[in-house]
């Protein structure tokens, strides 16, 4: 029962985020924003949808239990949710699940973006590991971590190229790492 409530919470959270993303997309496009990387987006949606199905399948089919270290894993998950909200609210109307760039917009460099370029991708990567491990769905954690890394190897270069072509991204982030808060020299 705990597993199903947890999964429903996450799915509802993601659906709410999609509604926010759609609203932000409409606002940005009304201001002249351009969408990039449309070719890979359906693959990303498929991967994230399959992730939830994978967790559901592995936990129910293989009759998995909640991890014996669930308090620590759940605490880490809660921390990722706080960081997720921080990342999304820091971008405000510029946050989206798609690569949508408003030409000549000032790049947001506040919140976690002061420290790393792609905090939300890092958070999602951690969630893709934590959520299945919380319920001992290790195969799902391994498979979807690999798939997520593959998707991000396509998405991040596309996103950075789009931002470089239309904004002051290079000035704002020349000394900020993609995923590490350690400053580059």
Describe this structure in words.
- This protein is mainly alpha-helical and 185 residues long.
- It has a single domain (41-97, 108-185), classed as Four Helix Bundle (Hemerythrin (Met), subunit A) (Up-down Bundle), CATH 1.20.120.1630.
- Helix content is 66%, strand content 3%.
- It contains six helices and two strands.
- The protein has helices at residues 2-30, 41-61, 70-91, 119-134, 138-166, 169-173; strands at 34-36, 99-101.
- The chain has a two-stranded antiparallel ribbon.
- Helix 2 runs antiparallel to helix 5 (138-166) and helix 4 runs antiparallel to helix 5.
- The longest helix is centred in the N-terminal third of the chain and has 29 residues, at 2-30.
- The protein is elongated.
Unreliable stretches (pLDDT < 50, length at least 5) are: none
Largest sheet: 2 strands, antiparallel
Number of helices: 6
Beta-sheet strand percentage? under 5%
Number of strands: 2
Order of helices and strands: HEHHEHHH
Strand arrangement across the biggest beta sheet: 1-2
CATH C-level label: Mainly Alpha
Which terms summarize this structure?
185 residues; mainly alpha; Four Helix Bundle (Hemerythrin (Met), subunit A); two-stranded antiparallel ribbon; 6 helices; elongated
Task: Give a topology summary.
Layout: H1 2-30, E1 34-36, H2 41-61, H3 70-91, E2 99-101, H4 119-134, H5 138-166, H6 169-173
Antiparallel strand pairs: 1-2
Describe the structure in brief.
The chain has 6 helices and 2 strands, in the order H-E-H-H-E-H-H-H. By secondary structure, the protein is mainly α. Keywords: Membrane, Transmembrane, Transmembrane helix.
């Amino acid at each position: 029962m705990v597993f199903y409530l947890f999964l429903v919470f996450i799915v509802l959270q993601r659906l709410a985020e999609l509604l926010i993303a759609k609203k932000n997309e409409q606002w940005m496009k009304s201001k002249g924003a351009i969408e990039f990387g449309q070719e890979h987006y359906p693959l990303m949606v498929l991967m994230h949808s399959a992730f939830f199905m994978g967790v559901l399948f592995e936990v129910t089919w293989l009759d998995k239990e909640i991890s014996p270290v669930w308090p620590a894993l759940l605490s880490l998950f809660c921390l990722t949710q706080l960081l997720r909200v921080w990342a999304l609210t820091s971008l405000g109307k510029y946050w989206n699940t798609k690569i949508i760039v408003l030409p000549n917009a000032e790049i947001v460099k506040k919140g976690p973006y002061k420290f790393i370029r792609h905090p939300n991708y890092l958070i999602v990567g951690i969630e893709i590991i934590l959520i299945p491990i919380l319920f001992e769905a290790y195969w799902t954690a391994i498979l979807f971590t690999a798939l997520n890394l593959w998707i991000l190897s396509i998405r991040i270069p596309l996103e950075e190229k789009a931002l470089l072509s239309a904004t002051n991204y290079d000035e704002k982030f020349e000394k900020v790492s993609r995923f590490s808060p350690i400053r580059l020299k």
